[in-house]
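Lecture notes, unit on protein representations.

Consider one protein chain, 420 amino acids long.
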Amino acid sequence: MLTLGISLCLMGLAFVVTMLVFPHVLAFARRHGIVDNPNARKLQRVPVPVMGGTTVFIGVIVSVLVCSAITGNYNLLELMGLIMVMYLIGLWDDVKDVPVSLRFGVEVLVVWLMIILFRVEINDFHGFLGIHEIPDLVSVPLSLFAGVGIINSINLIDGVDGYCSTYGVMSCVMFAIIFYYVGDMTLFTFALIVAGALVPFFFHNVFGKTSKMFLGDGGSLMLGTFLTFCTFCTLSSTSPCAAFGNGGLSMVALTLAILAVPVFDTLKVMIGRVARGQSPFHPDKTHLHHLFIEMNYSHLATSELIVFHNFLVVVFLIIAWKLGASINFQVWMVIAWAFLFTWVFYYYMEYERRQNDGEGSPLFNRCCKRGKAWNLSNTKVWQFTRRMVDSKFLGGETPALEESSSDVSSGSTKIDPRIG
């Protein structure tokens, strides 16, 4: 039987295991050249190992095995099987580019198996637009579309240091709170485990210099798969989360609020690519996080600002619910807020950036000055944290792959605002 104490211990176990395996995975990635090389659309200036997702996966699987042994419930291992498939296809993509069609096909297969094996899907709107249960003819295609969309939206936010891991911790904790209040201790524990495994990676990814590693497609696809499962569990007709709906809180709005920025930013990027006659999967630098980098915000500041805004969407939703807002109003409010931040704000600031022959308007330049002021990489706290994560015990003693006078940490990697 899982209790709050056991769940927190398993979260701590995931943290410790990830921390301990990190130096070994880092050394393996360097030894075999599994790195992300810099190019015109990427922000780092030197090759960076790209197996951070492996450290997170190991931390999660060890804790899940212990959890299954404690409870005698091995259902989580079935879910880990699906997550492992996405982790492996992502790792393969990190090592050797996988055709988009193959990866897309695997994503559809994994989401379909999730629906079949666990009998969870988006088949209940919990009263939004007066709709409750949805027939399979509609719910299965909707779930496949939404599931693949969520997986890719999480994959696409992995563009600056700390963003994907910070968002992952925030979203997992949010879903954990939901599952705790409806009494699903198994999913509550799983969500905490994933959050716990992401934290050590976050510190290396953001503060590390010799111990720096990227999450990679393996990690982001794995996280996206888990968040897809959480979404299905909250919006399924068999979900105990319906109890929230009885209290006037829209589960559609709550789930959408947790996923707000990644989903709406991905829609903006893909629609923009199609409008330009490109493939929706064509890589570019039109994400929200690229805009903040262009305004001289550090990677850490960019990540925290965006994730904090996503958190505010959830907070405002809860306030609206407490004030008696209807279920329909809650959903439309979340959509409007997410749209304003990811679309309206982005395109308005892009317009300001192009003013004065590309030199930027006074407003844009003031934002750039503010971004520079938020750079914490020269503070004592930052330098102390870097020394800790780069220490010999944590795997940072090995020399970097390539010496460079540029600092590739989250606090100091900058690009010209006019690039891209």
